[in-house]
Amino acid sequence: MTQTASKPFLIGISGGAASGKAEACKKIKDVLYRKAKGKKVEVLSLSSFYRELSDEELKLALNSEFDFDHPNSFDFKYLADVLRKIKQGEHVVLHKYDCSAYSSTPDVQEVPDDVDVVIVEGILTFYQKETLQKVLRDVSMKGRCLDSVLDSYFKYVKPAFEEFCLPTKKYADVILPRAPDNHVGVDLITEHLLQLVNDSPLIHNVQHYIPRARNQSESCVGSFRPH
């Protein structure tokens, strides 16, 4: 079967908190830069699409009482609009999110109009790893005390993963266990993307790869929806 990709090519990476999503994205991006000379790759974090909090919600967040892993915490309409603009070849500017202040920052991420691959990563990209990894990351990067992090994890992060993230596993074309240490899986994904960005037709050998059947509604933008 021959398949031609439209530019830019969008892919999503989803998984539980601290499951290695960002590191897997970095490895994929590094390989593409190394092997696909001159191609442009951008990684978007779902955290850039947190909605603005009300004053009352901000007070809850500062006391670690706001659930940032719930679908209602994200502006999926904004995400869909950004992806639509990217697919239309528009230059996009996004404000980065400060996880310690719970608000957008003046710092921006730019997606050029001639980008070749855009990777979107986040816990609810398709709407856990070790608890220790989540704890260490939050304590070091967000300045939160250990008790607060553990309470937040078991109160919000773990239940949100089981209710909202895990069911979206069925939408994934590739399951990547032990990310980002699954070098075989990362190589498989990057080789597939290399063919796409180099404008080479994708020849699928049914003896080695059977594409998962998709529903009509599972488009690049349409897949980014809360469940």
UniProtKB/TrEMBL annotation:
It comes from the Eukaryota. PANTHER family: URIDINE KINASE (PTHR10285). Residues 10-130, 132-184 form the Phosphoribulokinase/uridine kinase domain. Transmembrane segments: none annotated. It holds the Pfam family PRK. This is Phosphoribulokinase/uridine kinase domain-containing protein. One of its GO terms (molecular function) is ATP binding. The lineage of its organism: Eukaryota, Metazoa, Spiralia, Lophotrochozoa, Platyhelminthes.
